Amino acid sequence: MSKKVIKQMADDYVATLDDTLNDTIKQTVKNIYVWATNGKTQTEIAKYLTLNKKEWEELNRKYPETLGAFVKGKEFANTMLSMSMFEMALGKQTIRRQILNRDGEPVWLEEDIPPNVRFNALKFLLENQVPQVYGKQHAISDQNEYAKVLATLSDAEKQALMLIEKKETIKTLEVQKKPKEYITEDGVPHETE
């Protein structure tokens, strides 16, 4: 997400606030929103504002809009993180981009982004940023629910489920091995080396 879009969202958030707030507080709220959207913690934001913990808490008590900006910014960042993780898990449709061929002429490259089974970094971030949804306790409850569902299945249904999971894993691996293609100006696809 571009900085320009995030700043516009911060401006929109500030526009919803009480008109009686002075410009300094409005600018502070805007900055807090942007910093929270970029994944900064309350401690880091307090340092940016040259505030100690007590002063930060006092600011939030006196102007609840500052804490509101932090919460809204964090919600947005966590939503974007969740969407990125979802997109990585499912893969992406074909992406077209223009590159230069060996002769220095522009050609269009088309490629599919396969599902990525190695998104541990995003998983770690989500577990820590949104523990109520992705945390270890939630994962344990999901596993318990999965175990309860499995207990209700017949042996034939369990075998069918295992086959489906195995086919999906094989399909994912095949997509990852698929050679990339590029399209020349005459519209003919060619495999890359």
What report would you give on this structure?
The chain is α+β, with helices and mostly antiparallel strands and 193 residues long. It folds into 2 domains: 3-84; 91-191, no CATH class. Helices cover 65% and strands 12% of the residues. The chain is built from 9 helices and 4 strands, in the order αααααββααααββ. The protein has helices spanning 3-15, 23-37, 42-48, 53-62, 64-90, 120-129, 131-134, 136-152, 155-177; strands spanning 92-100, 106-113, 181-183, 189-191. Strands 1-2-3-4 form a 4-stranded antiparallel β-sheet. Helix 5 (64-90) packs antiparallel against helix 6.
How many distinct beta strands? 4
Q: What best-fitting shape do the alpha-carbon axes yield?
A: flat
What strand line-up does the widest sheet have? Answer: 1-2-3-4
DSSP helix fraction: 55-70%
Provide mean pLDDT, rounded.
Answer: 75
Q: Whole-number radius of gyration?
A: 24 Å
Task: State the domain count.
Answer: 2
Strand content: 5-15%
Distance between the termini: 33 Å
Order of helices and strands: HHHHHEEHHHHEE
Low-confidence stretches: none
Oligomer: single chain
Number of helices: 9
The helix/strand class is alpha+beta
Largest sheet, described in full? Answer: 4 strands, antiparallel
